[in-house]
């Protein structure tokens, strides 16, 4: 007899990516009850809730904003969770708070000589999203181009890569560089 396969959060994300949102919503509670959530799980879960437009749960999972001094001593996973928080905040219009968190992350990574995309591959995509929301098309284009360079070779982040391409076009459009939107 075959042993039943244990579902995990990445399975729920795959269901969402495959357009099976209702099944993903139905499956999610049983997965959350059966496993202890590591920081990496919280990042996935927060993004799942964001995709479900359940922002309160997404924010609850990411936790509170941490200070610059705290950020200097936490793990890379907790910095990634802060980036997820900033990404979610930018989607609900809390742009100042989102930018403050991103600036802290940038400062910590610079001071500690950390390559941000090694532990947050979608980081520049997240910042692109922020600057599109603020209508700062020059910055959004800058980060979209960085995001493109990071994500172009990885199949794990196809959705973010495709979104990055759309962000590049939107940034060019916002800058009224219509020929480059193609």
Our measurement of the CA-to-CA distance between the termini, rounded to an integer number of angstroms, reads 54 Å
CA-based gyration radius? 17 Å
User: Can you give the helix content as a percent range?
Assistant: over 70%
The major β-sheet equals:
none
Beta-strand content bin? under 5%
Tally of individual helices? 11
Principal-axes geometry comes out as globular
Whole-number average pLDDT? 87
**What is the N-to-C succession of helices and strands?**
HHHHHHHHHHH
Number of E-type strands: 0
Given the helix and strand composition, which structural class is it? mainly alpha
Low-confidence regions: 1-5
Task: Describe the structure concisely for a colleague.
The chain is an all-alpha fold and 182 residues long.
Would you mind describing this structure in some detail?
With 182 residues, the protein is mainly α. The chain is 70% helix and 0% strand. The protein has 11 helices and no strands. The protein has helices spanning 9-17, 21-34, 39-51, 55-62, 68-71, 76-91, 95-111, 116-119, 123-133, 137-151, 158-174. Helix 6 packs parallel to helix 9. The radius of gyration is 17 Å and the shape is globular. The termini are far apart. Mean pLDDT is 87; it is low at 1-5.
């Amino acid at each position: 007899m075959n042993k039943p396969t244990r579902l995990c959060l990445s399975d729920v994300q795959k269901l969402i990516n495959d357009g099976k949102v209702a099944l993903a919503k139905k499956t999610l509670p049983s997965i959350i009850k059966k496993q202890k959530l590591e920081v990496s799980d919280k990042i996935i879960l927060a993004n799942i809730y964001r995709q479900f437009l359940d922002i309160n749960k997404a924010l609850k999972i990411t936790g509170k904003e941490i200070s610059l001094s705290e950020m200097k001593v936490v793990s890379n996973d907790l910095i990634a969770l802060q980036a997820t928080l900033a990404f979610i905040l930018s989607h609900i219009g809390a742009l100042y708070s989102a930018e403050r968190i991103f600036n802290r992350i940038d400062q910590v990574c610079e001071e500690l000589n950390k390559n941000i995309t090694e532990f947050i591959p979608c980081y520049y995509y997240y910042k692109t999203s922020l600057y599109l929301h603020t209508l700062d098309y020059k910055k959004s284009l800058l980060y979209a181009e960085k995001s493109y360079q990071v994500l172009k070779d990885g199949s794990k982040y196809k959705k973010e890569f495709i979104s990055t391409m759309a962000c590049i076009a939107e940034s060019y459009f916002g800058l009224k560089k219509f020929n480059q939107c193609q």
